[in-house]
Write a structure and sequence with these properties.
three-stranded antiparallel beta sheet
């Protein structure tokens, strides 16, 4: 067991960097008994393994659970796994290639860029309301409603139907934590069923009356005779909704919390808004919203003399990689003008985040709106960090203007 790495310890969750440094000092790959995984803490290895086709997000395209030495998930969890296992995040080629190609046809740069005025207008409106109220919770008042509204608008989900989206997403994403409890699984199963039922009805409506939205585009998308099944449509929509706002919400509040803790850097940013693009990349590196991503070993792989056999699970530590001194100068420090910043917060390889351009537009829009419209924004109370390790965020971020 590695004492320095304890993802259930609130002290570690509050500041995992010392633990990460200890892991990097121990080696390039470290067995971790509590989760039965191999921990990979170095940037070079994480980056390379994200692109290594001997690893996969799933093994079901090549092996049965039994062939792979794994126990099938409980039957009671079926709604979650049906939803999760048909999304491109947890698929490998050829299905991943087919679905990503079809999604990309509807998720084009032009489509994303067309959203910029809507994103910037919504960010300004949200910040104006925050200012008018004299402050509030940056998470619930700005960070959360912006990406939820944007991805819902993009998919064509009516405004009146959007309230459950964030709770459904939060409950489903609970299953991505390490060793989730049965209570967490029950919430994820319920949310998966409810979310799927809602989207099935929406898809039926869009089939009858297509609109100028991503859901209609996904229904119509085809390439060389390929198309998306209804389950793939549902799983893709849920993936886009979940990934489209979970990371952005947490990147926003983690980033502003870091700025409040570094008033000199915040002052420099307020004085020079041209720093916004590099500041966003640095804040994504500095307090990474997704700390860990998992891969299955499909074929034996050796790292630094250690063989990880087929059937093993690898935990790629994004948070550690983004603080690796072999890649980043003074990684523990904040440098909003950092130019050489190969962070891996959006992953890499075939599973690189398809929504990264949209996330950057959203993060820039909210940051600029807050800098311009709330120039005296300040922390009202020290926030409480969520107990989660994998998806890193805050319970809230109370501010005054």
């Amino acid at each position: 067991m590695t004492a320095a790495f304890d993802p259930w310890d609130p002290a570690f969750v509050a500041d995992p960097c010392p633990g990460y440094a200890a892991l990097r000092a121990r080696g390039r790959v470290i067995p971790y008994e509590p989760t039965g995984q191999w921990l990979v803490p170095h940037h070079a290895d994480v980056s390379a393994l994200l692109r290594d086709r001997r690893l996969g997000r799933t093994y079901r395209h090549r092996f049965t659970h039994e062939d792979f030495g794994r126990t099938p998930p409980p039957a009671a969890h079926e709604p979650f796994h049906t939803l999760n296992d048909h999304g491109m995040l947890d698929l490998e080629p050829p299905d991943h290639t087919r679905i990503r190609r079809l999604v990309s046809k509807a998720f084009t740069p032009r489509t994303v860029e067309r959203l910029r005025p809507y994103v910037e207008g919504l960010a300004a409106d949200l910040v104006d309301r925050l200012v008018a109220a004299g402050g509030g919770d940056l998470l619930t008042d700005v960070a959360e409603p912006l990406p939820v509204a944007v991805i819902a608008e993009m998919l064509g989900i009516p405004e009146a139907d959007r309230a459950p989206l964030r709770p459904w997403s939060a409950d489903i994403c609970g299953m991505y934590e390490l060793n989730p409890s049965e209570e967490t699984a029950a919430r994820a199963v319920r949310a998966s069923a409810e979310f799927s039922d809602y989207l099935r009805e929406l898809i039926a409506k869009r089939r009858e009356r297509p609109g100028d939205d991503l859901m209609s585009g996904l229904i119509a998308a085809h390439d060389e005779g390929d198309s998306l099944t209804e389950q793939e449509l549902i799983s893709t929509a849920v993936l886009l909704l979940n990934a489209g706002h979970e990371a952005t919400v947490n990147a926003t509040v983690n980033g502003w919390h870091a700025l409040f803790r570094h008033p000199g850097h915040l002052a420099a940013l307020r004085a020079d808004h041209s720093l916004v693009p590099s500041a966003i990349e640095e804040l994504l590196r500095y307090d990474t919203p997704l700390q860990l991503f998992e891969r299955w070993v499909l074929d034996d792989i050796e790292i630094d003399g250690t063989t990880m056999p087929r059937g093993a699970e690898i935990a790629l530590l994004f948070g550690s990689a983004n603080h690796d001194p072999a890649v980043f100068t003074e990684p523990a420090g904040l440098d909003l003008a950092r130019r050489d910043n190969p962070h891996i917060s959006f992953s890499a390889g075939i599973h690189y985040c398809i929504g990264a351009p949209l996330a950057r537009i959203e993060l820039a829009a909210s940051m600029r709106a807050l800098l311009e419209r709330a120039p005296t924004l300040a922390l009202a109370a020290e926030p409480k960090r969520k107990p989660n390790f994998v998806i890193r965020g805050l319970e809230g971020l109370r501010v005054v203007v």
